[in-house]
Design goal:
Largest sheet: 8 strands, parallel, barrel
Strand content: 15-25%
Structural class: alpha/beta
Number of strands: 15
Mean pLDDT: 76
CATH topology of the largest domain: TIM Barrel
Low-confidence stretches: 1-137
């Protein structure tokens, strides 16, 4: 789909911001470029006009199923993100101060950031130039699932409102020690749990059960089926440190032993996915490729964690090649990098280097590979805090902001502004 509406010029202005990307949940991308700084007073005078301008730009896609609208501004590492549950009611989800190129203050307050940046866009709509603001179909978008463990052991009633704010349509329930929401859901009773999820418009997208192991999931598959949850992620099982033909045979033995449990899973409409994990049979990229080859038609897939691939010395291009090889075997993609690791206490800024856009891993080749295979599985912005079981940030709003910053980076990797 391609939509063009008169609203904004290419000469978009906003406090030195170089690029603007408005990513729509419907799979459209609204773009603008070339911002220059204007005086704050002029920006404030025009701020009230922006929402009407954006509404006009969205008129052509009102028929799309759109769960939210997001605005991402990224000068350097700064970002502003807004989320909306309707086309014309815009709610602030998170904001950082934007860096200004003019002699004024280098960091703006939340209010000034919102007014200044958005109003700058509106100025061009008031100017004499012909204004064109286009929404273009990207043809591909990530499907986000929110890992409950990102909020530690906070209760579901606290986490669920954050799902929509992070672009997620579904929740991945983690048990203790990383989370506690899987136990909470069962303790409250499945009917009450389903009602709570329905109230927030969130589904169960995944059950993560490393604790049960791949051969102990039969009962969990029945629960997943009841919850209409399509995926259970767990770890592999077998000898470690193998190579070549020995590794291939061990993967084959693992898949054979797993087949009765895969039959149970398929009866309940559930797919099992094995994460690549250090010190595990399913660790080396060859083990992942063989798992993918041997699991065709069995309801078995791969949950891919770049974090562990980096531990093996793989770079972004090699990971992208692996994604292309896995193709339809890929069931879950963890947007997660190694950074400085997750096994020992670190200052928060260093711990957060696990998130996309913060560490050194270039996700653009990975995003290109996901687009190439038309990846339909879940994507989770992910990291492990130390110790396990705590939220990634002290405040709920801060955790949501970090997830949105990572999503903003991934959006730019998928749809770089020309």
């Amino acid at each position: 789909m391609a939509v063009s509406n008169k609203a904004l010029d290419r000469g978009t202005v906003a406090w030195g911001v170089k690029t603007l990307s408005i990513a729509l949940g419907s799979g459209c991308m609204v773009r603008g470029t070339e911002a220059r700084p204007y005086q704050g007073s002029l920006i404030r005078q025009a701020s009230v006009r922006l929402l009407g301008v954006v509404r006009k730009a969205l008129q052509g896609i009102r028929s799309c199923s759109m769960s939210q609208v997001e605005f991402f501004f990224q000068p350097g590492s700064a970002c502003l993100s807004l989320a909306s549950m309707t086309h014309d009611d815009f709610l602030l989800a998170s904001a950082n101060g934007l860096q200004s190129e003019d002699p004024g203050p280098k960091m703006l307050s939340r209010r000034s950031c919102l007014q200044g940046t958005l109003a700058g866009l509106a100025l061009q709509a008031l100017g004499p130039s012909p204004a064109i603001f286009s929404a273009q179909a990207t043809g591909f978008e990530l499907k986000y699932c929110l890992a409950s463990s990102m909020f530690g052991q906070l209760p579901l009633k606290t986490i669920l409102p954050e799902a929509a704010r992070t672009g997620a349509t579904s929740l991945d329930l983690w048990p203790k020690q990383h989370g506690s929401q899987r136990e909470e859901a069962q303790a409250m009773g499945w009917e009450s749990f389903e009602e709570l999820m329905h109230q927030h418009g969130v589904g169960v997208g995944c059950l993560t059960r490393y604790d049960l192991g791949p051969f102990g999931l039969d009962e969990e598959c029945a629960i997943a089926g009841r919850l209409q949850c399509p995926l259970i992620v767990t770890g592999g099982h077998g000898p470690v440190g193998l190579k070549g033909d020995d590794l291939k045979q061990a993967v084959k033995d693992f898949v054979e032993r797993l087949k009765p449990h895969l039959e149970v899973a398929q009866r309940h409409g559930v797919r099992l996915a094995i994460e690549n994990h250090g010190h595990n049979l399913i660790d080396h990229p060859d083990s992942l490729r063989w798992l993918g080859e041997m699991s065709q038609g069995l309801g078995l897939g791969v949950a891919l964690a770049p974090y562990h691939l980096e531990n093996l010395g793989m770079d972004a291009q090699e990971m992208a090649s692996l994604i292309l090889d896995l193709d339809k075997s890929l069931a879950m993609f963890y947007a997660w990098q190694h950074g400085m690791g997750c096994m020992k206490p670190l200052p928060k800024e260093q711990e957060l280097l696990q998130l996309p856009g913060r560490g050194d891993l270039d996700f653009k080749p990975l995003m290109h590979a996901l687009r190439t295979i038309d990846f339909k599985g879940w994507t989770e912005v992910f990291m492990h805090p130390v110790p396990r079981g705590i939220p990634i940030m002290p405040e709920v709003e801060e955790a949501t902001r970090e997830i949105n910053l990572a999503r903003s980076y991934l959006a730019r990797c998928l749809n770089p502004i020309q």
